[in-house]
Specification:
Protein name: Acyl-CoA dehydrogenase
Largest sheet: 4 strands, antiparallel
Helix content: 40-55%
Structural class: alpha+beta
Number of helices: 12
Strand content: 5-15%
Number of strands: 11
Order of helices and strands: HHHHHHEEEEEEEEEHHEEHHHH
Strand order of the largest sheet: 4-5-9-8
Family: Belongs to the acyl-CoA dehydrogenase family.
Bound molecules: flavin-adenine dinucleotide
InterPro entries: Acyl-CoA_DH_CS, Acyl-CoA_Oxase/DH_mid-dom, Acyl-CoA_Oxase/DH_mid-dom_sf, AcylCo_DH-like_C, AcylCo_DH/oxidase_C, AcylCoA_DH/ox_N, AcylCoA_DH/ox_N_sf, AcylCoA_DH/oxidase_NM_dom_sf
Cofactor: FAD
Radius of gyration: 22 Å
Keywords: FAD, Flavoprotein, Oxidoreductase
């Protein structure tokens, strides 16, 4: 187990500086264009693939960093560059984590490389859980997976929504109901391989922010996948379902395994929010030092300087919560007070507030697309919504405080 540290080691600093260089030289200059185009920035993803940022190796190296700081550090730097483009770059990693967390070694080895493709032919992957009637309430999911024993195939039917890279992905990871009696305990995840018949893209959403990231519905009509596409395998699923049925029979309320997964993945979203908040803060600080009114820089007014002081303080506090939760996740510490949710809640609310303050500090300029803070503000609004809304984070935290099991 690695001791908790608030300092990056030399190797991590090197990686951070390298990522920062990419974010500053490649991502940030392209941000306004792809935001306007509302399209996946394939050339930027390809550039990231060429230098090794868009790759399984890079992601895995950060994911398994025993200090826990690899992923938050990487997310902060990339999202500092631009949230929409960065989500296009890391969206595949989020789907890959679904396979890393639940897949067998063989599934990991087969599917994750296909999710990324290679630098000459980059691919993206999608994680499809949300549905039109199952957002926060994951247990009400309706997409059904039925096992066809004769053919050793699973048949998937349903409609997924809000899928990042949905429809444009090669590999889709789809969560579906295998036993409707068991609520969220009756769900399983499936790989839908590239080009599988019956999977199609529904509407692509026109969004408020992170517009360079593709978000769409995914429609599944009699999608047949081989038995080997069930993540974790049939034997493990049958055992898990049998345990859940037994517990349901006994009326026992059990800890949802999904909680541990979400707690562990939420700090990464918190780190994205820290990146956006820091970007907006830096623009605002620079502006406040150089913009003069009444014969002096506006930062000489306490009303402006105090806002910047609050912004910086919140960003640092958010980062500390994110780093703590990431360290806990990597080192298998139990999230007894939902520390993962805490980090995501605080960091995402901070990003929303700080980007709004940045607009205020830039005055009229802050409200225009000549300056990046209005885009950052639009982008920041996503953090309090996806990977669990702020209300759901509070619900989870509150339940742990009340001693109620997380469902
Ligand atoms: C840009 C974008 C990308 C996304 N990417 C993905 C993806 O790749 N894969 C994927 O599976 N999903 C993805 N999502 C879906 C996202 O996780 C959901 O939007 C989110 O979980 C909220 O669900 P909902 O939109 O249905 O809102 P609802 O659940 O309908 O919530 C509406 C409002 O009610 C509140 N609310 C609901 N229940 C409670 C409660 N019990 N107590 C208090 N308040 C409550 C919510 O906090 C919210 O304010 C994405 C969403 C967006 C917008």
């Amino acid at each position: 187990m690695a001791e908790f540290t608030m300092e990056l080691n030399d190797e991590q600093k090197e990686v951070r500086d390298w990522l920062h260089g990419f974010a500053a030289d490649v991502i940030r200059p392209a941000a306004a264009e792809w935001d306007e185009r509302e399209e996946t920035p394939w050339p930027v993803i390809q550039e990231a693939a060429k230098v090794g940022i868009y790759s399984l190796d890079f992601y895995a190296q950060q994911y398994f960093d025993p200090t826990g700081l690899g992923i938050p550090m990487a997310m902060e730097e990339l999202f500092w560059g631009d949230a929409g483009i960065a989500l296009s770059i890391v969206g595949t990693g989020l789907a890959a984590v679904g396979v890393l967390a639940n897949g067998t070694e063989e599934q990991i080895g087969t599917w994750i490389p296909q999710m990324y493709g290679d630098a000459n032919d980059v691919k993206v992957a999608a994680f499809c859980s949300s549905e039109p009637d199952a957002g926060s309430d994951v247990a009400s999911m309706r997409t059904r997976a039925v096992y066809d024993e004769a053919k050793d195939e699973w048949v998937l039917n349903g409609t997924k929504t809000w899928a990042t890279n949905g429809g444009i992905a090669g590999v889709h990871v789809v969560v579906a109901v295998v036993d409707p009696e068991l609520g969220s305990k009756g769900h399983a995840s499936f790989i839908v391989p590239p080009g599988t018949a019956g999977l199609s893209q529904g509407q692509k959403f026109k969004k408020h922010g992170i517009r360079a990231s593709h978000t769409a519905e995914v429609v599944l009509e009699d999608v047949r996948v081989p038995g080997s596409c069930l993540l974790g395998g049939k034997e493990k699923l049958d055992e898990r379902l049998a345990r859940a049925r037994e517990r349901a029979k006994q009326g026992e309320r059990v800890k949802n395994a999904a909680m541990a997964t979400f707690e562990a993945s939420r700090p990464a979203v918190g780190a994205m929010a820290v990146g956006t908040a820091r970007a907006a803060y830096e623009v605002a600080l620079d502006y406040a030092r150089t913009r003069e009114q009444f014969g002096r820089p506006i930062i000489d007014n306490q009303g402006v300087a105090f806002q910047l002081a609050d912004m910086r303080t919140s960003i640092d506090a958010a980062r500390l919560l994110v780093w703590r939760a990431s360290w806990m996740a990597v080192n298998g510490k139990p999230f007894t007070a939902a520390e993962g949710s805490m980090s995501k809640l605080f960091a995402s609310e901070t990003a929303k507030k700080v980007t709004s303050q940045a607009i205020q500090i830039l005055g009229g300029n802050g409200y225009t697309r000549e300056y990046p803070v209005e885009r950052m503000h639009r982008d920041a609004a996503i953090y309090t919504i996806f990977e669990g809304t702020s209300e759901i984070q509070r619900l989870v935290i509150a339940r742990t405080l009340a001693g109620v099991p997380i469902r």
